[in-house]
TrEMBL record:
Bias kind Polar residues: ranges: 194-208
Pfam families for this protein: Ras
Organism: Ephemerocybe angulata
Keyword presence, GTP-binding: yes
Name of the molecule in the record: GTP-binding protein RAB5
Length: 208
């Protein structure tokens, strides 16, 4: 029987870098040119099949990047197993904001959290302001995973989530191992994994 691992993943980053678009691409394989800015946070799930032996179910908290929601973030990254910190490769300031989030995670999140730095909007290569070298060097110095993506074209999106899924079962605390209860914001109760629907993404209303 295959094992299903369950992990809580939080997306952080400046407003408009494409956090919600990355999740929409990952969960539904869709892209929307005119997305509304997220209010509070959104919750979605998606399952990644690693091999015959194991699947990883992500409980995804897509946070709002607007400054007015900043104080909510600890509620979402607290107890998170992994964080995807997103910047926009066409906006240098968004990498600075990503660095701020990473410093906060390093100070305040669970010490075992897996952090991935993600440069989004690679389809806008002509407008690039953040070089791959600069971002990669920073990620290496801080011990982070790093990748570039385009939520618009889909490039790199599945890959970054799969890379995180592969890394997690190896590093996860016992609470994230198969059959363990889910630990989400507001102490959400455990999820019965036997009732989940396999590899299909599901969108659920925000309960925050
Ligand atoms: P907040 O919810 O305000 O924090 O923003 P967000 O980070 O969730 O950004 P969102 O996904 O809403 O995307 C912002 C804008 O960027 C939207 O108009 C998207 O269509 C656009 N966008 C997102 N990803 C990409 C991408 O990979 N390429 C291009 N060209 N545009 C993108
Ligand atoms: Mg959003």
């Amino acid at each position: 029987m295959s094992k299903q691992y369950q992990f809580k993943l939080v997306l952080l980053g400046e407003s408009a870098v494409g956090k919600s678009s990355l999740v929409l691409r990952f969960v539904k394989d869709q892209f929307d040119d005119y997305r509304e800015s997220t209010i509070g946070a959104a919750f979605l799930t998606q399952t990644v099949t690693l091999d015959d032996q194991s699947t990883v179910k992500f409980e995804i908290w897509d946070t709002a990047g607007q400054e007015r929601y900043k104080s909510l973030a600890p509620m979402y990254y607290r107890n998170a197993n992994c964080a995807v910190v997103v910047y926009d490769i066409t906006q240098t300031a968004s990498l600075e904001k990503a660095r701020t989030w990473i410093r906060e995670l390093q100070r305040q999140a669970d010490p075992s959290i897996v952090i991935a730095l993600c440069g989004n909007k690679t389809d806008l290569e002509a407008r690039r302001q953040v070089s791959q070298e600069e971002a990669k060097k920073y990620a290496e110095e801080e011990g982070l995973m790093w990748a570039e993506t385009s939520a618009k074209s889909g490039e790199g999106v599945q890959e970054i989530f799969t890379a995180i899924a592969k890394k997690l079962p190896l590093t996860a605390p016992p609470s994230a191992r198969p059959g363990a209860a889910s630990r989400g914001p507001g102490a959400r109760t455990g999820v019965d994994l036997s009732k989940q629907q396999g590899a299909q993404g599901q969108q659920e209303p925000c309960n925050c």
